[in-house]
UniProtKB/TrEMBL annotation:
Protein known as: Glycoside hydrolase family 3 C-terminal domain-containing protein
Fibronectin type III-like domain mapped to chain residues: 441-512
Record flagged with keyword Transmembrane: yes
GO BP term, example: carbohydrate metabolic process
Length: 595
């Protein structure tokens, strides 16, 4: 057998495929990017191709590999596991996902990686491939860009949203954190795509607890989950954990990337069977359970009440200081003050747009004869997106837009209000910390429109502001200004942004279902805020959801269609244009990575 040592294409920090979309290099294996690995990066750029490559270093094979004979990966002479072999793509060909995340544990260290024993689809053994893979050195927080790091930390602290808390958080000083779930180890700091960050460092759960809080980490449980399996630990380990603390902290995470919609599957929007079973056993075993949601998007929430989870904290993908902010919130050093920017339903099908998106199973049923190449999505919910739907149609949701709890309490009231123009207004809002802990609060002002002909949600956010950190008993006055531009609505018939005659009521609060009427103005005559032209009209009429006829307009998904390659004019988009767009995003990301 001939060894292929270092037989790969030249690299300049970008994907080699950008130099040739269909390279026929004779090397059995080649690199997509530099053979370096960032321990603080849970999802490398390869995950933009497919999220299954999370935790992998990918190489490219010139041969199609038999998935039944994928070979074995050896790191520093020790067998690890078989690589991930997915179906070859038109753009990238055959990728080999070498799983390294749970095997590379030290910064600034070079490892020898050997891939051997794979066979191609013709039954021929592929030459082994040996290369050096080096982990990047650690850059300590605050060393290179201290001002930037301070902002990163502030964003992580203030962006976390406390969704539920039944006298569970914060944890007592000095208490032990019993972590459960692979996500305690695979704690994501960012997403993929054009919004991807290339972290200079990453503070995750272990470092956050040990270095930045008064809490103690259950190291035995943490080590158990380095295998990245969502399973309940052995009985003796659980017994020792209960002796340390009666509270368990369960972690849930999801990768997120441009070009990948959240699948309506288990492991996507829904919990996996393993995650559900883990939560069931944890809640049945421990007196208190805290769930940490390390996700970039809403996921199902029925399990929170089903298993009686006591507290739920949404960290989101909180950046390089995410683990520190999490630890500080858990021990009460930081009081959570974030509010939801979206609405979390109980179930995916509670969203009115659900019928407009085809699932894989639905596409498969429509695929008769030639395979489906494309699917169009026609949005039918109109302006009733997010809270505007749930609030207007009075549909129950787990957590509405604007929801977010605190470790303290606040009193909010209108101090004064005055008109600034025909219908604009300026309000002074007094916020008082009535609790026992320091904290920040967000005030949100909604508008309710009466008397017009245009479709309007029941409430529309028109202004918001956040206080400074208020000590117990301290108050602050926030000024909210609402101009005509915040109150305008679009009239297709008039091709203009207008304000209709009628009454505009202003409601103060947080989530739209927790508001109080504080002010109103009457508009005598129609106001044309700006005259424009109708642009980019859809090529066919779209029936949109209307509160005036909800039964007759509720989205059915009938206008969402599927097409074969022939019906859509060929396969150019799938083979060249769309993959090229993905490659361009990767190219820009790799440039930023090398800056």
């Amino acid at each position: 057998m001939t060894k292929k040592r270092g037989n790969f294409m030249p690299i300049d920090g970008t994907f080699e495929l950008l130099a040739g979309l269909h390279d026929d290099n004779q090397a059995a294996m080649s690199f997509l990017q530099k053979p370096v690995y960032n321990l603080d990066e849970m999802d490398r750029r390869e995950s933009m191709i497919s999220l299954v490559y999370s935790g992998c270093f990918c190489i490219k094979s010139s041969k199609h590999i038999d998935p039944q004979q994928p070979g074995m990966v050896y790191i520093d002479g020790k067998a690890t596991e078989a690589p991930l072999i997915e179906k070859p793509t038109a753009m990238f060909g055959q990728l080999v996902g070498i799983i390294v995340r749970k095997y590379l544990l030290e910064y600034n260290k070079e490892h020898e990686v050997r891939y051997a024993g794979a066979y191609d689809t013709d039954g021929i053994e592929i030459s082994e491939f040996i290369f050096k893979l080096k982990t990047l050195p650690r850059i300590e927080p605050g060393v290179k860009y201290p001002e930037h790091d301070a902002i990163v930390l502030q964003a992580a602290r203030e962006g976390a949203v406390l969704l539920k808390n039944n006298n569970t958080l914060p944890l007592s000083s000095g208490s032990c954190v019993n972590v459960f779930g692979a996500a305690a180890v695979v704690f994501r700091l960012g997403c993929l795509g054009a919004g991807k960050i290339n972290p200079r460092y990453g503070i995750r759960v272990k470092e956050g607890i040990e270095k930045y809080s008064s809490l103690k980490l259950n190291q035995e449980l943490y080590d158990f989950y380095t295998e990245e399996r969502d399973v309940f630990p052995p009985g003796d380990m659980v017994t020792r954990a209960k002796d340390l603390s009666g509270t368990a902290v369960v972690f849930i995470t999801r990768g997120s990337s441009e070009a990948h919609d959240v699948p309506m599957d288990k492991g996507g929007y829904y919990l996996t069977d393993q995650e559900r079973e883990l939560i069931r056993k944890v809640t049945a075993t421990f007196g208190k359970t805290v769930a940490i949601l390390n996700v970039a998007h809403p996921i199902e929430t029925k399990w929170i009440e089903e298993y009686d989870v006591d507290a739920v904290l949404l960290t989101g993908l909180s950046g390089m200081a995410g683990g520190r902010a999490l630890a500080e919130i858990l021990d009460g050093t930081v009081n959570p003050s974030g509010k939801l920017p979206n609405t979390w339903a109980y179930d995916y099908h509670d969203y009115p747009s659900a019928p407009n998106f085809l699932t894989k199973d639905q596409i498969a049923k429509k695929s008769v004869g030639a395979p489906i190449q494309y699917a169009t999505t026609v949005y039918e919910e109109g302006l009733y997106v997010g809270y505007r739907y749930f609030d207007t149609f009075q549909k129950p949701a787990a957590y509405l837009f604007g929801h977010g709890l605190s470790y303290t309490t606040f009193d909010t009231k209108l101090k004064s209000a005055a008109k600034t123009d025909a219908c604009g207004t300026q309000m002074d809002i007094e916020v008082t910390n009535t609790g026992t802990r320091a904290g920040k609060e967000v005030v949100m002002l909604y508008a309710h429109f009466e008397g017009g002909e245009l479709e309007q949600p029941d409430k529309r956010l028109v202004a918001f502001a956040k206080t400074k950190e208020l000590l117990p008993g301290e108050a602050q006055i926030l000024c909210l200004e609402v101009s005509e531009k915040r109150l305008k609505s679009y009239s297709e018939a008039e091709a203009a942004w207008i304000i209709e005659p009628g009454r505009i009521s202003f409601l103060l609060g947080g989530a739209p279902n927790r508001t109080t009427l504080v002010w109103s103005v009457d508009v005598a005559d129609k106001i044309i805020v700006s005259q424009v032209k109708n642009r980019i009209a859809p090529p066919f009429p779209i029936k949109e959801l209307s509160a005036k006829n909800s039964n007759g307009t509720y989205p059915q998904g009938e206008m969402t269609k599927v097409y074969t390659a022939e019906e859509s004019g060929g396969s150019f988009l799938s083979k060249i244009a769309v993959p090229l767009l993905v490659a361009m995003v990767m190219f820009l990301s790799s440039i930023l990575w090398n800056v």
